[in-house]
## 1
Amino acid sequence: MFFQNLYCQLPEKSLQSRFRIKVWGPTQGNNDTLKLKTKKISDDLRCNAYLVQKKGSFMILAGDFTRKQAARNKLARFRRNYKKAGISKDCNEFVTGFQIYSRKKLGDKPLVVRDSVENHLNVSPEKDIINAGLDEKKTMYGKWNNEIQTRANTAFEEDYLTENEKKVIYYLNLVRMEPKLFAETILIDRIGEPDSENEISLFRELFDMQPLPCLLPNKQCWESAKCHAELSGISGYVGHERQNCESYF
């Protein structure tokens, strides 16, 4: 919704922010035009946008950042749409209207059982987790060729693991083998354009991360970890030292 002169109704995230990005103004304008402009900027940038009136002029700020570095991380993306964008203080006390962007996030589902990801990667719930025949031309996951998927699937023959446990190892291996590709496909499909500090930090780390060797399942490790988790849950113990479980390594 678009509100006028309602500082007290700013969302908590807005009130906590210290920096935003100025994408338009300062300039003059009429009320209806400013409303439309604020909504358009919010839609274009997929974030909250704020109409600010200061010293007789209007400007529109976008985003909510608690640290200046976080705003800097986002600035390049904002400049794709608005070349003169720059970092600004939040100016909450001068907000005369705002457009809250509602983004649908998929973070409430476990990654390892997300149907759309599994369909793109041809992951089957059966024993045969990898299914050949990935169409590289029709899916954004085309770079995940069958060789990569097969190499990542190190646990598919381990009969002591559940299917979800096998998938945990499978996805861990995908991100270890191809961290940048994982960020650009599976992760961005899950969360959309990264906008929080944690999401941006994760993307940067994956883009800078060097490939790692695949994890290999080990039944003794699994037995020891399972025993430790169960007994720790019963006793309330927090730590890594085994109490009444075999420690093989």
## 2
Amino acid sequence: MPELGQGLVIETGGGVCSGRLPIDSPADFYIAGSFDHLAKLKDGTYAVVDDKTSSAKPENLLAEKQSTTYASQVNAYAYALEKPGTQGWIDKVYESKNHVNSRRMVPKIAREKICVSRLGLNNFAVDSLAHTGNGAFNFSTSRVWAEIGKDYISLLALCQKIADIVLNPTQPDHSVNCNFCADFIIHRNSG
């Protein structure tokens, strides 16, 4: 990724779990997930890079669209890397029955805190696709790099909105095809 300058991708598909989020809630909320790539940069800081695949529609080739659409996701990974949960916190998450669809995303071992200085997206827009037989496909892509600004204020504001919805006694409208909604309903009905 020439946009990052000198460095080395040191991890692919790594799991993250933040500590308790600093939001106004009686319940414990945290971020858990799995990033695509973590690169160690020449200056000793780190970059979080997420890969996306899309069609080659002109709007998908705009870095600004990509950065707006996925800014929260990449910021969430960076936040969890900079403010990781302790081993005690992670153990508490695994011991608790009060969770919604999250333990499968939580690594079992705490991470060391690191400094993330860069966030970005690699969007691989598929230009063409051809079936070559035996279940194989050839395809070509255009890669679009989108730099993402660090914005933990907006991330935590979004987390606050999610917490408010989750703790609201009146369930919002939901989609029958949404796995999070299904887990939410099960969690709400069991509590």
## 3
Amino acid sequence: MNVFEYWFAMIKRFVGISVFPTWKTITLGVFKDRDSLLKEVKERGFGLSDEASYMMDRPEFAVSPTKTDIDLVACKLAQLGIESGTPLKVRQRARRLGLYPCPAEVALQLCLILCPTKTEPDPPKRLRYGGVPIVVSEPISGPPDRWGKHLRVFEIWCDEDGPLKGPRFIGSTDGDPRGLWTGEGTFIFARRPLPQG
């Protein structure tokens, strides 16, 4: 997206026309709690990194108490008019174009939509690390290391054949406001903010 296309997108957004088509629609609140959702994800053959498991135990990770449909958009950073940026800058730029952070539950629900059949879990060593879907949400505290605690978001890893044929794994990536996201990944946003209450 060049400068002209970006400003054209901004004008369309201002007059209420979305420039991003809906990629997937998922329903939150289908599971009664985190444990039942996590059990289903594992039964579908997804492994979890230690960081992802830690994040799911944090109070910031919550399952919606009511059923709510949410439209998702998948895009590259170039479609937001930037080549790279901090997670904070990416969220701010996306919001100007009518895209919003997803609830953290979206990462797990998305795995169930992408992989409707069950498989045996595979080790993550065969996974492809470039271009993985990053679910843009408000960041969650990751496990502390020698530099302290870091804010992180979920990403979904699969091999070159895609999640229906190869290994499935839920990991995490840097979500700290001062971190760096580059144009390699696919970024998942919500079309509108989740209703409060």
## 4
Amino acid sequence: MKKVILIFLFLIIAIITVSGYFIFKEKNPIPTKKKGGENNIMKSKILMIIAPKDFRDEEYLIPHQVFNQGGFEVEVASKEVTEAIGMFNTKVKIDKDISQVNLDDYQGIVFVGGKGASIYFNDPIALNLAKKSFAKGKVIGAICIAPSILANAGILKNKKATAYPTEQSNLNQQGALYTNEAVTIDDKIITGQGPKAAQEFAEKILSALQID
């Protein structure tokens, strides 16, 4: 009889212990890492650099949409403003000043054109961002007159590139091989000629980012 009672008590203790374990586990699940880890999150971001005033609206809006639809987070940088205004009055909230950019946070960097982009032609911070992006092997995009930023940074030497026709002379002087194409790809540098090329330009950058 004593053995039966002991066995019965043992079973009750076992049931209580197992039940408690599962209740605790449910309330305190073991944390799991996201697929791809933290580095994957870092690599899913693109930086778009626009002029504080008179950037070309389509060259910002279309790529921004393409990148978002492709699963990339987009951050926007500019110079000394919290809101930038396009040539056709598109207003964009600025995430950070170009002086605060950490390139390690991004997989790709895109310079948007429009007449206001000339503010970066000789801007040491913008040129340094282009140089460092190139050195780090980032995907780099520039459209309209913005390829002159890359040319002035010295990263288009012996590279095929396109741009708005007004920039052909400057690109050639800086050693670029001007193509006059709508979009030109040379390794990880992708250049576009103007607003009409914005969709193709964005899609080529997206493809390069997904392969990278």
